[in-house]
Design brief:
Structural class: alpha+beta
Strand order of the largest sheet: 5-4-3-7-6
Helix content: 10-25%
Distance between the termini: 37 Å
CATH topology: OB fold (Dihydrolipoamide Acetyltransferase, E2P)
CATH architecture: Beta Barrel
Radius of gyration: 18 Å
CATH class: Mainly Beta
Shape: globular
Strand content: 35-45%
């Protein structure tokens, strides 16, 4: 099968359109599965040696704002830096399991062990590594929508 890439400014970021001949319709499920299995990676900075490395989104536990940069914590406990503000990271990761829960934090919903109601109309979220975060009232609606 020949693959052709084209740009379209009218399409949304993180959106792709696959056009095939009607005779290829039987292959659509395999194409959809192959695209879905390709995992997105994020380029981060290793603080110890200032090198850029790629990490898989599924390995990220949390991304926390640190002034004009972000700290990225992964499953193994390692920490990395991301040279972007949290609001830009949130836009880039919009259609992923990562979700912003307050002004300082984005968490990976795949690593939530449990959550419960907390005081001041907030939600306390516990991740599988034992860390705990609060979902602020402003982000609760998005949090519930993402988990449903």
């Amino acid at each position: 099968m020949k693959v052709v890439f084209e740009e379209n400014q009218e399409m949304q970021l993180n959106e792709a359109k696959v056009i095939t001949h009607p005779g290829e319709r039987s292959k659509w499920d395999r194409i959809r599965e192959a695209i879905g299995q390709s995992e997105t990676e994020l380029v981060v900075i290793q603080a110890s040696n200032d090198r850029h490395v790629k990490i898989k989104l599924s390995s990220i536990m949390a991304i926390e704002s640190e002034d004009r940069m972000c700290g990225v914590r992964v499953i193994t406990g390692e920490g990395y830096l991301l040279n972007q503000r949290l609001k830009y990271v949130e836009i880039e990761l919009e259609d992923t399991p990562l979700i912003r829960i307050n002004n300082q934090t984005i968490i990976n919903t795949q690593h939530i062990s449990n959550f419960s109601a907390a005081e001041h109309a907030r939600i306390q979220v516990n991740l599988i590594d034992g860390s705990s975060y609060y979902v602020s009232r402003f982000y609760i609606k998005n949090f519930r929508r993402k988990l449903s």
